[in-house]
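Quick start: load a record and inspect it. Here is non-specific serine/threonine protein kinase:
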Amino acid sequence: MSSSGENLEKYRIPLHEILRATRNFSSETLIGDGGFGFVHIGKLSEEWNERTVAIKRLNRDGGQGNNEFRNELEMISSFHHPNIITFIGYCDEANEMIIVSEFAKNQSLDHHLQKPDKIRGLTWAQRLKICLGAAKGLKYLHSGLGEDKRVIHRDVKSGNILLDENLEAKICDFGLSKFGARNQEDSQVHTKVAGTRFYMDPVYNERSRLTKESDVYSFGVVMFEMSSGTLVYREKCFGDDAKPQYLIDVVRSVYDDDKKAAAPDKLIDHYIKDHADMNSFDSFNKIAHECVNLKLEKRPTLERVIRKIEQALTIQLKHDESPTTRSLEKVAYRCIKRCPRRQDMSRKGGRNRGRGPGAPRGRELRARYTMNEVVDRIEDAVEFVANENKLA
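Running the structure step on this input writes:
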């Protein structure tokens, strides 16, 4: 047995353990599926620390054979980083190809982007932290594996970035990933084109030339998904546009050749528009735009991407902590507290309009600011900002 095979042996999980954890691959434990196969949630036995895990059962018809499976195992078993999904073990009994990883409680980024109630719950600061973690994980793949090798993910997308219980980003799914030589600055791999269409680097798609900058391009697309709250492969009306468009087309139309945004607020998710600091938002989108540059050599390094996201996060956290922001949020909360539901004017007994189950009464109404109080609070906030600007 080779040394790599010996290293993998300690990760082997018996098939009976997998079957017990998934209840014989029951549909009740199924949490995901695709061309690659199926993903189940399961709880391992005491021998495996009773850990809740994600169990990916690969489909042999999905294009991955024994050699590819073995290569993926050797790759992911060597990863050790907080922003890379933790590899737990594998099973290859009875011709199975099963990979067991840590379970990410908050699922994938694309899951949040697909559901308005989910993406609405992510603040701008949280989105920045998620992107920062993912960028650090990607940087580790490109430069943290020793002097002689790097991994190019080849399928960076919101569906392959998971979130744990603390909303910490975890890069996953290395079935398409390739090793490259890190000691060559312009290292590239000539390979059959693979990946996900809307996230794919056009240079790689046209020339079959895979580089670390290909991952940077894909990550830039994910960044725009996060700032716009829109999946790149779904058409949507942006701003005042009546015609639905794809996100990347809008990005190209908003930013000109001089990287000067024509209308950057066109790309902002309306759920964060009233709370995001626009300097933070603009800084983030500008580095995302650099990532999706059609010229390979003009794309930023991941070190630069991380630095710019950190700067955007610092700006946003200062904004969130400012007395002005807290004061206005408090005023807004009290103004809309227990807001009455609008009643149908045509209902019989229209005199009860506004007195439905959601309407405030008595003490609830008194809990609100009067209009004069609202004006006073806003004037105080404006005066505070003016004084801050004088001191700056």
